[in-house]
Design a protein that fits this description.
With 279 residues, this protein is of the alpha+beta class. The protein has ten helices and five strands. The strands form two sheets. A three-stranded antiparallel beta sheet has the order 3-4-5, sandwiched between helices. A two-stranded antiparallel sheet has the order 1-2.
Protein backbone atom coordinates (compact mmCIF):
# COMPACT_ATOMS: atom_id res chain seq x y z
CA UNK A 1 0.00 0.00 0.00
CA UNK A 2 1.37 3.42 -0.97
CA UNK A 3 0.78 6.10 1.64
CA UNK A 4 -0.33 9.64 0.91
CA UNK A 5 2.95 10.96 2.30
CA UNK A 6 4.97 8.68 0.05
CA UNK A 7 3.11 9.95 -2.99
CA UNK A 8 3.66 13.52 -1.82
CA UNK A 9 7.42 13.09 -1.40
CA UNK A 10 7.72 11.43 -4.80
CA UNK A 11 6.33 14.63 -6.31
CA UNK A 12 8.38 17.08 -4.23
CA UNK A 13 9.51 19.66 -6.74
CA UNK A 14 10.24 23.29 -5.96
CA UNK A 15 9.88 26.22 -8.34
CA UNK A 16 13.12 28.22 -8.22
CA UNK A 17 12.28 30.67 -10.99
CA UNK A 18 11.09 33.38 -8.62
CA UNK A 19 12.46 34.84 -5.39
CA UNK A 20 10.99 33.42 -2.16
CA UNK A 21 10.71 35.70 0.89
CA UNK A 22 13.41 37.89 -0.63
CA UNK A 23 15.80 34.97 -1.21
CA UNK A 24 17.52 34.92 -4.59
CA UNK A 25 19.97 32.72 -6.46
CA UNK A 26 23.27 33.88 -7.94
CA UNK A 27 22.86 31.77 -11.07
CA UNK A 28 19.96 31.49 -13.48
CA UNK A 29 17.75 28.45 -13.12
CA UNK A 30 18.17 25.51 -15.48
CA UNK A 31 15.64 23.75 -17.68
CA UNK A 32 12.08 24.45 -16.47
CA UNK A 33 13.14 25.73 -13.04
CA UNK A 34 11.44 22.89 -11.17
CA UNK A 35 14.04 21.30 -8.90
CA UNK A 36 13.88 18.20 -6.73
CA UNK A 37 15.91 18.04 -3.50
CA UNK A 38 19.00 16.61 -5.17
CA UNK A 39 19.01 19.29 -7.87
CA UNK A 40 18.65 22.01 -5.24
CA UNK A 41 21.76 20.70 -3.48
CA UNK A 42 23.73 20.12 -6.69
CA UNK A 43 22.87 23.56 -8.09
CA UNK A 44 23.26 25.32 -4.70
CA UNK A 45 19.83 26.93 -5.07
CA UNK A 46 19.13 29.30 -2.19
CA UNK A 47 15.54 29.64 -3.38
CA UNK A 48 15.04 25.89 -3.33
CA UNK A 49 16.68 25.49 0.09
CA UNK A 50 14.49 28.28 1.48
CA UNK A 51 11.38 26.50 0.26
CA UNK A 52 12.50 23.22 1.84
CA UNK A 53 13.06 25.11 5.10
CA UNK A 54 9.54 26.54 4.95
CA UNK A 55 8.10 23.10 4.31
CA UNK A 56 10.02 21.67 7.27
CA UNK A 57 8.96 24.59 9.46
CA UNK A 58 10.84 26.57 12.07
CA UNK A 59 10.04 24.24 14.98
CA UNK A 60 11.46 21.17 13.22
CA UNK A 61 14.37 23.25 11.98
CA UNK A 62 15.23 24.44 15.48
CA UNK A 63 14.85 20.98 16.94
CA UNK A 64 17.17 19.43 14.38
CA UNK A 65 19.84 22.11 14.83
CA UNK A 66 19.59 21.40 18.56
CA UNK A 67 20.18 17.69 17.87
CA UNK A 68 23.25 18.64 15.84
CA UNK A 69 24.58 20.52 18.88
CA UNK A 70 24.30 23.96 17.31
CA UNK A 71 23.04 25.66 20.48
CA UNK A 72 25.98 24.96 22.77
CA UNK A 73 29.76 24.88 22.95
CA UNK A 74 31.55 21.73 21.92
CA UNK A 75 33.01 19.59 24.70
CA UNK A 76 36.62 19.69 23.51
CA UNK A 77 40.04 20.17 25.09
CA UNK A 78 40.36 23.86 24.16
CA UNK A 79 39.39 26.84 26.29
CA UNK A 80 38.78 28.80 23.09
CA UNK A 81 35.65 26.77 22.24
CA UNK A 82 32.84 29.14 21.31
CA UNK A 83 29.08 28.89 21.35
CA UNK A 84 27.27 29.26 18.01
CA UNK A 85 25.62 32.61 17.31
CA UNK A 86 21.89 32.47 16.75
CA UNK A 87 18.79 33.88 18.38
CA UNK A 88 16.22 31.16 19.14
CA UNK A 89 13.83 33.85 20.41
CA UNK A 90 13.76 35.68 17.08
CA UNK A 91 13.02 32.93 14.59
CA UNK A 92 10.44 33.89 12.03
CA UNK A 93 10.04 33.14 8.32
CA UNK A 94 12.94 35.42 7.45
CA UNK A 95 15.31 33.48 9.71
CA UNK A 96 13.85 30.09 8.75
CA UNK A 97 14.44 30.66 5.03
CA UNK A 98 17.95 32.09 5.47
CA UNK A 99 19.07 29.38 7.86
CA UNK A 100 17.88 26.91 5.23
CA UNK A 101 20.84 27.83 3.03
CA UNK A 102 23.39 28.76 5.69
CA UNK A 103 22.75 32.39 6.67
CA UNK A 104 21.40 33.97 9.90
CA UNK A 105 23.11 31.38 12.12
CA UNK A 106 26.84 31.07 12.81
CA UNK A 107 28.64 27.95 13.99
CA UNK A 108 32.32 27.18 14.39
CA UNK A 109 34.07 25.05 11.75
CA UNK A 110 34.31 22.19 14.23
CA UNK A 111 30.54 22.33 14.85
CA UNK A 112 30.03 21.84 11.13
CA UNK A 113 32.56 19.00 10.93
CA UNK A 114 30.91 17.26 13.88
CA UNK A 115 27.49 17.60 12.26
CA UNK A 116 28.66 16.13 8.95
CA UNK A 117 30.53 13.33 10.71
CA UNK A 118 27.50 12.44 12.82
CA UNK A 119 25.10 12.47 9.89
CA UNK A 120 27.51 10.29 7.91
CA UNK A 121 27.86 7.93 10.89
CA UNK A 122 24.33 6.55 10.52
CA UNK A 123 23.20 9.40 12.76
CA UNK A 124 25.29 8.41 15.79
CA UNK A 125 26.94 11.44 17.37
CA UNK A 126 30.67 11.79 16.78
CA UNK A 127 32.60 13.62 19.51
CA UNK A 128 35.61 15.60 18.24
CA UNK A 129 38.82 15.46 20.22
CA UNK A 130 42.42 16.67 19.98
CA UNK A 131 43.91 13.89 22.12
CA UNK A 132 45.43 10.57 21.10
CA UNK A 133 42.86 8.77 23.25
CA UNK A 134 39.61 9.65 21.51
CA UNK A 135 36.42 9.98 23.48
CA UNK A 136 33.90 7.22 23.15
CA UNK A 137 31.31 8.18 20.60
CA UNK A 138 27.81 8.60 21.92
CA UNK A 139 25.13 5.96 21.56
CA UNK A 140 22.72 8.83 20.92
CA UNK A 141 21.27 8.84 17.43
CA UNK A 142 20.02 12.12 16.02
CA UNK A 143 18.15 10.46 13.14
CA UNK A 144 14.95 8.44 13.21
CA UNK A 145 16.06 6.29 10.29
CA UNK A 146 19.44 5.05 9.06
CA UNK A 147 18.21 5.71 5.53
CA UNK A 148 18.38 9.43 6.29
CA UNK A 149 22.16 9.06 6.61
CA UNK A 150 22.29 7.13 3.34
CA UNK A 151 20.32 9.84 1.58
CA UNK A 152 22.52 12.57 3.06
CA UNK A 153 25.59 10.82 1.67
CA UNK A 154 23.97 10.32 -1.71
CA UNK A 155 23.29 14.05 -1.94
CA UNK A 156 26.93 14.85 -1.17
CA UNK A 157 28.06 12.30 -3.73
CA UNK A 158 25.75 13.86 -6.34
CA UNK A 159 27.58 17.18 -5.90
CA UNK A 160 30.71 15.41 -7.13
CA UNK A 161 29.23 13.12 -9.77
CA UNK A 162 26.55 15.38 -11.26
CA UNK A 163 28.22 18.77 -11.52
CA UNK A 164 30.18 19.97 -14.53
CA UNK A 165 32.31 22.37 -12.51
CA UNK A 166 32.71 21.24 -8.88
CA UNK A 167 32.95 17.51 -9.46
CA UNK A 168 35.96 17.46 -11.80
CA UNK A 169 37.85 19.66 -9.33
CA UNK A 170 37.40 17.12 -6.52
CA UNK A 171 37.28 13.71 -8.17
CA UNK A 172 40.11 11.26 -7.59
CA UNK A 173 40.02 8.09 -9.68
CA UNK A 174 39.25 5.04 -7.58
CA UNK A 175 38.01 6.98 -4.55
CA UNK A 176 34.40 7.85 -3.83
CA UNK A 177 34.10 11.38 -2.45
CA UNK A 178 31.12 13.50 -1.45
CA UNK A 179 30.98 17.13 -0.43
CA UNK A 180 29.36 20.53 -0.54
CA UNK A 181 30.54 23.97 -1.53
CA UNK A 182 29.85 27.13 0.44
CA UNK A 183 30.08 30.76 -0.68
CA UNK A 184 28.90 33.78 1.29
CA UNK A 185 29.40 37.51 0.92
CA UNK A 186 31.35 39.22 3.69
CA UNK A 187 29.66 41.76 5.93
CA UNK A 188 30.65 45.41 5.81
CA UNK A 189 31.63 46.99 9.17
CA UNK A 190 28.68 49.39 8.99
CA UNK A 191 26.15 46.93 7.62
CA UNK A 192 25.35 45.44 4.25
CA UNK A 193 27.43 43.05 2.19
CA UNK A 194 30.45 43.36 -0.05
CA UNK A 195 29.67 42.34 -3.61
CA UNK A 196 33.27 41.43 -4.38
CA UNK A 197 34.43 39.80 -1.14
CA UNK A 198 33.44 36.27 -0.19
CA UNK A 199 34.13 33.60 2.36
CA UNK A 200 34.49 30.35 0.47
CA UNK A 201 34.44 26.80 1.77
CA UNK A 202 34.18 23.15 0.87
CA UNK A 203 33.51 20.19 3.15
CA UNK A 204 34.25 16.69 1.91
CA UNK A 205 33.54 13.19 3.20
CA UNK A 206 35.34 10.09 2.00
CA UNK A 207 35.11 7.27 1.24
CA UNK A 208 31.46 8.12 0.67
CA UNK A 209 30.44 4.43 0.66
CA UNK A 210 32.19 3.83 4.01
CA UNK A 211 32.75 7.26 5.63
CA UNK A 212 35.89 7.64 7.69
CA UNK A 213 37.19 11.16 7.10
CA UNK A 214 35.78 14.68 6.97
CA UNK A 215 37.88 17.45 5.40
CA UNK A 216 36.81 21.08 5.73
CA UNK A 217 38.48 24.20 4.39
CA UNK A 218 37.37 27.84 4.53
CA UNK A 219 39.07 30.92 3.13
CA UNK A 220 38.15 34.51 3.92
CA UNK A 221 38.28 36.89 0.97
CA UNK A 222 40.27 34.82 -1.53
CA UNK A 223 41.89 37.10 -4.07
CA UNK A 224 41.01 36.73 -7.74
CA UNK A 225 43.97 36.07 -10.04
CA UNK A 226 44.59 38.94 -12.43
CA UNK A 227 44.13 36.64 -15.42
CA UNK A 228 40.82 35.18 -14.22
CA UNK A 229 37.22 36.29 -14.68
CA UNK A 230 35.85 33.57 -12.41
CA UNK A 231 33.84 34.48 -9.34
CA UNK A 232 35.62 33.36 -6.19
CA UNK A 233 33.43 30.51 -4.90
CA UNK A 234 33.83 27.34 -2.88
CA UNK A 235 33.98 25.37 -6.13
CA UNK A 236 36.73 27.55 -7.59
CA UNK A 237 38.85 28.08 -4.47
CA UNK A 238 38.25 25.27 -1.99
CA UNK A 239 37.25 22.21 -3.97
CA UNK A 240 40.74 21.83 -5.54
CA UNK A 241 42.31 22.42 -2.13
CA UNK A 242 40.26 19.64 -0.53
CA UNK A 243 41.22 17.35 -3.40
CA UNK A 244 44.91 18.02 -2.71
CA UNK A 245 44.44 17.33 1.01
CA UNK A 246 42.58 14.07 0.36
CA UNK A 247 45.19 13.02 -2.18
CA UNK A 248 47.95 13.52 0.40
CA UNK A 249 45.91 11.60 3.00
CA UNK A 250 45.57 8.71 0.58
CA UNK A 251 49.35 8.59 0.15
CA UNK A 252 50.24 9.06 3.83
CA UNK A 253 47.64 6.58 5.15
CA UNK A 254 48.07 4.19 2.21
CA UNK A 255 44.31 4.06 1.63
CA UNK A 256 43.17 1.49 -0.95
CA UNK A 257 40.94 2.43 -3.85
CA UNK A 258 37.36 1.21 -4.04
CA UNK A 259 35.41 -0.65 -6.65
CA UNK A 260 32.80 1.36 -8.53
CA UNK A 261 30.02 -1.08 -7.66
CA UNK A 262 30.40 -0.12 -4.02
CA UNK A 263 29.08 3.38 -4.66
CA UNK A 264 26.35 4.39 -2.27
CA UNK A 265 22.85 4.14 -3.63
CA UNK A 266 19.90 5.80 -1.93
CA UNK A 267 16.53 6.70 -3.36
CA UNK A 268 14.25 9.15 -1.62
CA UNK A 269 11.17 7.63 -3.26
CA UNK A 270 11.85 4.35 -1.51
CA UNK A 271 13.05 5.37 1.93
CA UNK A 272 10.92 8.36 2.96
CA UNK A 273 7.53 6.72 3.29
CA UNK A 274 6.22 8.25 6.47
CA UNK A 275 7.23 11.88 6.44
CA UNK A 276 10.21 11.61 8.80
CA UNK A 277 12.19 13.95 6.56
CA UNK A 278 15.70 14.48 7.95
CA UNK A 279 14.73 14.19 11.60
Amino acid sequence: MVTTMELLIQTWFFDVKESVKGVQDHDNYKDNGLYDVETIVVESSNIGAAQIALKIGKNNQKEFLKKLGFFKKLDIELFEAEEPIGNPNNWKEHETTRIGFGHSFSVTPLHLVKAYASLANDGYTVSPTFTLNPKKNSDQNILLKKESSDYFLSLLNAVITKTKFTGPRVKIDGYNIGGKTGTSELLKPKGGYYKDRNRTSFIGIFPINNPRYVVYTAIKYPKKPTDSNERMTGAVVNAPLVKKIIFEMIKILNLPSYRHDNLIKAEIKQIYKYGYAFL
